[in-house]
Structure formats: structure tokens, C-alpha cells
Write a structure and sequence with these properties.
By secondary structure, the protein is of the alpha+beta class. The protein has 9 helices and 41 strands.
């Protein structure tokens, strides 16, 4: 009588090989059940057919291995071959995309093949029962394979592709904007002939280098040939580090200024420092005593402003002054020589920016960006805490006299007839779009260029006023002599996606019609890069209104089109199910199911309540506060950008209450932070659940495949891409928050900008791998890199001290980017013979 399936040879003891193969079979059985069950669900959602037959194959293989049959090995080999064919059919040789498809199955293949030798010594695989079972398994697996292959062959993609936006008529200027004169487009191939109005030269006198904000230096002592020899020259530590109560709230983002022989900088909680530029030794420190409860989204101070009073003699107190805005909404001026508060500025060197704002709620209103001074006027916006309430502080833009601190004007977009402070008992219009980033300024024109964010709140606009919709997500040119807008340009119509303008505009003399035009380069979070005549707001390259998805909870109010630039963009193709990612087939399957369950019609998918909607790019997409840099010598625009999705959903007021999502430090005195996964949006019909980066709950990896960030060189005159590379290594990233330590370029999220030099170099950190790099501006090749002691989410600078070029950056880390927090300011230079490095 032939032995039956599942019996054991009494002559074969149950050694380790038996238990190994049996345990492996149990694992395959479990994985197969999960994969097959999830695959069936995915098919019902209209997704890929691969996972169901693959799961069945694993189940059959597992059962055979548990029964000590060699057929378990061959069934798995057949399943693996099917997986291999499917994987290369779906994504080809995109190796990062192949990670979840092939790495896990290949590891299991090696493990399964180890069972060949012990199982072939068994007589059980000769049984007729096993033969029938094998035939049935093969037929079943091949049947599902055939159905899946038929499904694949009948479609150019395994998922429904989002239709690309349709081009339409060029966008018209927004109502009330200056009417542009006709201009011929820039001809492709025209070389950039840039004439700088100012050049920081040996110094770095404004947050972007100068008020034009090119982030360019004409210094060339450090160049492409010798940058590999850079050595750390000194390190300074601010001592401003989070305590146990603020450990998750630090995002310093600091960029120093360099004027004369000194550096000037702030710390996350607005302490001011002056250092000797050549040595990093401290000269003075001033502490404005900012309380912890003033910290909004994060403790941030990106920079300060420098101003020299032309009417003062050099020996006068505060003839040269350092000006900063604080987290608790004060405008402070101190003497650049001593750090002493300027007695002629406001009251004891301070101006209270809460005046005219309304109820003082800690964390709801303050300053994180560097001020800009144009024609003696300090122009200030304010960061309004996102998503708290429609009745939020005003986004009013104010100009203050740089010497006295007196209010020169206030631009309240909903009160265009009023240029001063509101009368007693009134406030600036509440909830209007705010400027949380830095402006740029043109001394010659007398304009300051203000990038605005969203009205309060971000994901619902039904209660917005017409004046808010007019200026929402717009850049506005304000005449600093009057406080009146000269023109504005809107980048998103009826913004419901938090696509506020986070980047400081860049002002260049742009090549145009055989000469140059004073222009403004404006990058956006959705990846569009606009080029405008900064005198009128007229696009120098056509801007097309393209059709975008409709529907959602505000279908009757959405704009049917959105403005797309024809100059340059760093956007990616619409997501498909194939773009889902993970560590293994299981978590990739989970992300595929989530993708199929969500509402997604491509860019500008409307917010929904009945299911999640995918926001891609997310509010962390495109360009953010780090902005872009321009090399006028070579005619190259350098753009680093992000490529991530959010998984969002509008939630009812009942669910907001049930989940306990309340405004931060709400006016009734409760000190309860908002849910990190959502915002209350008080006053609107809905709160919002936001899964930033759309991460898997199990592994912490993103659901979309890498790269998540890139860096690109663009020909300035034409917008043509010169080079484009994934930006950042995988070394500090990995599943479950465990660093992989792999120095493999993956393209990580990045936060912060660059500086370009006449030496042909682009210096930038920004990535989550904690590296600081020097890149060849013409090719994008990394020529030098060094690891920072904390995250490099800050813009670097370069300057000259004692006849020597330095490059410096603050390594302060970032709570949202999950990089290590620190308090380091570090400078590098080319070494002199016999010189030691790293002075503390």
C-alpha cells in the first residue's frame, strides 16, 4: 500500500531540518492566506490580480512543506517565477520599485530551496496522492496565472490612470492686478545675461544673500577642483535645545547673516548672537525670554535682518542694528556692536505685533521668518497656526520704520481703504491669508514681494470672503512707500489643498528679447515655477489655465481650471496603483488597497468626507521655504524639491469632538494640543484628518515609491532641464524608524535650500540623511560631502573673512523631518599649511 500524504517515515527522526521546513511551511501558509485574502479584496476594488494567485501558490506550497513534501519547494518556485514575470512586466528595471515586489520573495526562495535536500531523501513525495495534489495545485495556480495574464494583457496599466490636465487658454491677470504689456516669449537656447543689482560679495547681508534673494555669491576661492579639500574650521553652539516639554517641537531652520567681520544669528527661541566670522567666537548674546507656550508648529527662527541708519554717525547706539521677529509676536531691534536693545525703537527696543490682532492665544500668531528691510521699512507678516479655526489671527502685512519702530502702514486685504492700525475695539480682518515665509525686495522699484498662504482654514473655503479668495495663494507686490498693492498673481484658484506659497521669491534680471527684464521667479508647492515681470506681474512665459478634477464637498465653488507654467515644473506623473511601495508584498498590498479605496483623480483631487482623498503633490511637495538659487554667471537655476503624497479626509464635527481634536491653547485656557493626525478647523463644517507623507502604520515607510526628493538644474533663460537627480541617501532612513545605514541614493524628503557660488558649486544640506554636500552646478555631480552632527534643515551661506572663503550652515535638526535636533553652527574652509581644524 502506498504511503499517503502527511504520513512520516518512521526511519527518519524529526531533526532540525524537519522542523525548519515545517515552520517555513507554516509561515508560507500564513503569508498566503493574508496575501490571497488581501488580493481578493484588491480585485473587488478593481486592482491588480497578481496577489490572489500568488497567495494561493503560497498556501499550496506551505501545506506541502508542512506535510514534508518536495512539492512544496516546486510550488513555491513556480509562484516565484510568476512573481518575477509580473514584477518586471509592471515596473521593469526600476530597482527601487522592485524592492517590495522581489526582495521578500527572493529571501523566501533561498529559504525554501534549503528544503530540497532533506525532502528529496523522503519517500513520501512518490505517493500517488501527492501526484494528484500536485496536479490539482498546478492546474489551479496556472488557471489563476492565466486569468491574471489576460487581465494584464488587456490593459496598458494595472490601474486606472488619472488623466493629465488639459491645456486651455492662457491665464488672465487676477481682478485688480496690473494689466501687463504684450511681451514676446523667451526664445529657447538664449543664454542668460544677468546683471546683478547687488552682490553680497564678502558678506551675506540678507536672508537670501541680498534682498533680491538669488542665494548667489561671487566668491570663487572654493571651486570644483579644490572643494574636496574642505576642512571644518570652527563650531559654535547656541545652547538653545529642547527640554522634555518641547522635545518634539524644535525645527530651528536658522541661516546667519555676515556683515563686516561678524556673523549674526538667532536661535529657535529667538536668542540673538554675534560671532567673529573667522573663528566662531561669541561676541555678545541677547535673550528676549520667549516662553515655551509661544512655540507654534515648531520653535523656528530662520534668520534676522540687518539695517544701517544712514542718518546716524558710526559711533551712535544702533547706527547698525539687528532686527528679528519673535515667536511671541514681538519685533526686536538691538545694537549690532553690543547687542544692547535700541532705545529709539518702539518701547525699549521692542514693538508688540499683537496690536490689532485680537485675543492673545499663545502659539496662534508669531514670527518664524527673517524680516526684509526695503527703503528703511521693515516688512513683516506673521505665521498663523494652521487648521485651528476660521476665526484665526489676521494675515495683515505691516511695514515699520526701521529706526523708530513706528507703524508706517498696514495692508489689510479686506480693508483696502485703511492703511493704518484699526480703531480701538476693532481688529485687522480675521482669518485672511498670511505670509509665514520671507519676502523679497527691490530697492529701485520700492516694491516688496509678499508670498501669501491660505485663509483660515486650509481644507474648507465655503465661508471665505471674496477678498480672501482674491489673494489666497498669491504673490503680491506692495509699494513700501504707501503700503498699497501694485499687482498680484495667484498660483491656485480657490485653494483647498494647503498649497500656500512657502518659497521666498527670487529677483533676477532675466534674459528677454535680446536684453533683460527685471523678473521674479516664483516656485510653488505643486511644483510649478512661474517667471513674472516684477514691475507688472505679467508672466514672461505663458501661464495656461488647465482643466482640473471637480466634485467633493464644495463642487459648486471649485475653480474648473488651475494655472500651469510653461517655463518649468518639477511635478511628477499622476500616481497609479503601480506606484505603491513598502518593505514587502504585504505592506505594498495594503497601500494598493488604500489607494483603491481613496478618491484620486490626479492633481487637485477635491476634498471628500465619505472616503480619504489623495493629495499629490502634498503640501510638502514642490518647493518650500528653502526656495531656489540662481547662478547668474552660468545661467542656471537650482531647484531642490519634494515628491510626496498626503492621505486626507474631511471629518464631521461629531468625529472631531469624539476624537478630542481641539485647537492648540484655545482661548478658554485649555492647554491641549491638537491631534497630530488632524486639525479641528473650528467654525467650518468639517475638521480634517491629515496623514502627511502617507505612511504605513506598521513599518513607517511611505506608501508611494521613491524618490521622495530631487534636485534639478534648469537653464535659466529657457526653463529647460539640464540635469535632475534623486537627492539624499537611505543611510538614516529605514522601516520601523531603524536607520538602514545604506549610502545608496534613494531621494529622501528635504527641507531647506541651497547657495550657489561663482566657483561653480552648489552647497546644500536639507535631506534626512544629515549630509552636507557640494554639488557641481553644471552637472549635479556630488563633489564633496560630510556628515553633520544633527539635521541640516537650514539654508547655508558663504562669506569671506580675513581674505578666506568660508561656507557655513546650522545643524539644528527638525521634528517634522525626524532628523536629530542640535544647536550647531559649523564653518568650513580650505586649510592653510599646518593649520588645525575644528576650533570650538
Amino acid at each position: 500500500m502506498s504511503p499517503t500524504f502527511g504520513t512520516h517515515d518512521p526511519e527518519q527522526p524529526h531533526g532540525w531540518t524537519y522542523w525548519y521546513c515545517t515552520g517555513l511551511g507554516a509561515l508560507l501558509l500564513l503569508l498566503g492566506i493574508l496575501l490571497g485574502g488581501g488580493g481578493a479584496w484588491l480585485i473587488m476594488l478593481g486592482g491588480s490580480w497578481y496577489y490572489l494567485p500568488a497567495g494561493i501558490g503560497l498556501v499550496i506550497s506551505g501545506v506541502f512543506l508542512i506535510g514534508s513534501s518536495i512539492l512544496g519547494v516546486w510550488t513555491y518556485v513556480l509562484t516565484y517565477a510568476f512573481t518575477l514575470v509580473w514584477a518586471f512586466w509592471e515596473v521593469g528595471t526600476d530597482w527601487w520599485a522592485q524592492v517590495p515586489r522581489l526582495v521578500g520573495p527572493t529571501v523566501l526562495l533561498v529559504a525554501v530551496l534549503c528544503c530540497i535536500s532533506p525532502l528529496t531523501r523522503s519517500r513520501r513525495h512518490e505517493s500517488r496522492v501527492n501526484g494528484r495534489a500536485a496536479a490539482a495545485a498546478a492546474i489551479l495556480l496556472l488557471a489563476f496565472t492565466g486569468v491574471a495574464a489576460f487581465h494584464f494583457a488587456g490593459s496598458s496599466d494595472a490601474v486606472a490612470q488619472a488623466a493629465p490636465p488639459e491645456p486651455a487658454a492662457p491665464a488672465q491677470p487676477a481682478p485688480g492686478a496690473a494689466q501687463p504689456a504684450p511681451q514676446a516669449p523667451v526664445q529657447p537656447g538664449e543664454q542668460a545675461a544677468i546683471q546683478m543689482q547687488t552682490d553680497p560679495g564678502a558678506d551675506w547681508i540678507s536672508w537670501g544673500g541680498t534682498n533680491l534673494s538669488l542665494r548667489y555669491s561671487s566668491l570663487d576661492q572654493i571651486n570644483r577642483e579644490n572643494v574636496k579639500n574642505l576642512k571644518m574650521m570652527w563650531t559654535f553652539r547656541t545652547g538653545d535645545l529642547p527640554d522634555k516639554d518641547t522635545k518634539d517641537e524644535y525645527s530651528p531652520e536658522i541661516t546667519p547673516l555676515k556683515v563686516g567681520n561678524r556673523l549674526y544669528l538667532c536661535s529657535p527661541k529667538n536668542k540673538l548672537f554675534a560671532l567673529y566670522a573667522a573663528t566662531g567666537k561669541a561676541i555678545w548674546q541677547y535673550d528676549p525670554q520667549v516662553p515655551d507656550d509661544a512655540i507654534p508648529y515648531g520653535a523656528t527662527c530662520r534668520g534676522v535682518a540687518y539695517y544701517r541708519n544712514p542718518a546716524a554717525s558710526p559711533d551712535d547706539l544702533c547706527a547698525e542694528r539687528i532686527i528679528e521677529g519673535t515667536l511671541d509676536a514681538r519685533l526686536i531691534a538691538v545694537d549690532a556692536a553690543t547687542g544692547t536693545p535700541c532705545s529709539d525703537f518702539g518701547k525699549n527696543g521692542e514693538v508688540d505685533m499683537w496690536r490689532g490682532i485680537g485675543a492673545r492665544v499663545p502659539g496662534w500668531y508669531g514670527n518664524v521668518a527673517a524680516p526684509v528691510v526695503v527703503r528703511g521699512i521693515v516688512v513683516m507678516g506673521g505665521q498663523v497656526q494652521d487648521g485651528q479655526a476660521e476665526d484665526a489671527p489676521s494675515g495683515v502685512i505691516r511695514g515699520y520704520d526701521a529706526v523708530t519702530g513706528k507703524l508706517a502702514w498696514a495692508w489689510d486685504m479686506c480693508r483696502p481703504d485703511r492703511t493704518g492700525a484699526p480703531p480701538p475695539g476693532e481688529t485687522y480682518t480675521r482669518g485672511t491669508p498670511n505670509m509665514w515665509t520671507s519676502a523679497a525686495g527691490d530697492e529701485e522699484l520700492g516694491y516688496v514681494y509678499v508670498p501669501l498662504g491660505n485663509s483660515s482654514v486650509d481644507y474648507y473655503g465655503g465661508n471665505r470672503k471674496d477678498c480672501e479668495n482674491k489673494y489666497n495663494s498669491s504673490v503680491v507686490a506692495i509699494d513700501v512707500t504707501t503700503g498699497k498693492p501694485a499687482w498680484h498673481f495667484q498660483t491656485v484658484h480657490y485653494d483647498l489643498w494647503d498649497y500656500d506659497l512657502g518659497s521666498q521669491p527670487t529677483l533676477v534680471d532675466f534674459p528677454h528679447e535680446g536684453g533683460t527684464v527685471p523678473a521674479l521667479i516664483l516656485p510653488s508647492k505643486q511644483g510649478q515655477i512661474y517667471v513674472l515681470d516684477r514691475r507688472t506681474g505679467e508672466p514672461l512665459f505663458p501661464v495656461e489655465n488647465r482643466k482640473v478634477p471637480q466634485g467633493g464637498v464644495e463642487a459648486d465653488k471649485l475653480s474648473p481650471t488651475q494655472p500651469y507654467s510653461t517655463y518649468a515644473e518639477v511635478t511628477q506623473p499622476p500616481l497609479t496603483e503601480r506606484d505603491m511601495w513598502g518593505m514587502s508584498p504585504l505592506d505594498q498590498l495594503w497601500c494598493r488597497i488604500q489607494f483603491r479605496k481613496a478618491s484620486y483623480q490626479g492633481e487637485y483631487t477635491p476634498p471628500t468626507t465619505d472616503r480619504h482623498f489623495i493629495e499629490y503633490p502634498s503640501y510638502n511637495g514642490g518647493s518650500d521655504w528653502g526656495s531656489v538659487a540662481v547662478d547668474p554667471k552660468r545661467g542656471i537655476l537650482v531647484v531642490n524639491y519634494n515628491n510626496m503624497a498626503n492621505y486626507d479626509r474631511l471629518i464631521s464635527r461629531e468625529e472631531v469632538k469624539k476624537r478630542g481634536i481641539v485647537p492648540v491653547n484655545e482661548p478658554n485656557g485649555d492647554q491641549v494640543p491638537a491631534d497630530p493626525g488632524g486639525d479641528p478647523q473650528a467654525g467650518a463644517p468639517y475638521g480634517v484628518e491629515v496623514i502627511a507623507g502617507w505612511r504605513q502604520k506598521s513599518t513607517g515607510l511611505m506608501c508611494t515609491r521613491p524618490p521622495y526628493g530631487g534636485i534639478r538644474g534648469v537653464e535659466l533663460a529657457t526653463g529647460k532641464t539640464l540635469w535632475d537627480h534623486p537627492f539624499g541617501d537611505a543611510r538614516a532612513n529605514g522601516p520601523f524608524g531603524v536607520p538602514s545605514l545604506l549610502p545608496i541614493r534613494i531621494g529622501t524628503p528635504n527641507n531647506g535650500g541651497s547657495v550657489v557660488t561663482a566657483g561653480g558649486l552648489t552647497f546644500i544640506a536639507a535631506t534626512t540623511d544629515n549630509m552636507f554636500r557640494a554639488i557641481d552646478t553644471q552637472t549635479g555631480k556630488v563633489l564633496w560631502q560630510t556628515e553633520l552632527p544633527a539635521g541640516g534643515q537650514a539654508n547655508p551661506i558663504t562669506f569671506e573673512a580675513n581674505g578666506r572663503q568660508f561656507v557655513a550652515i546650522t545643524a539644528g535638526g527638525h521634528h517634522f523631518m525626524k532628523t536629530p535636533v542640535g544647536d550647531y553652527v559649523i564653518a568650513w574652509a580650505l586649510p592653510k599649511p599646518g593649520e588645525t581644524e575644528a576650533t570650538q
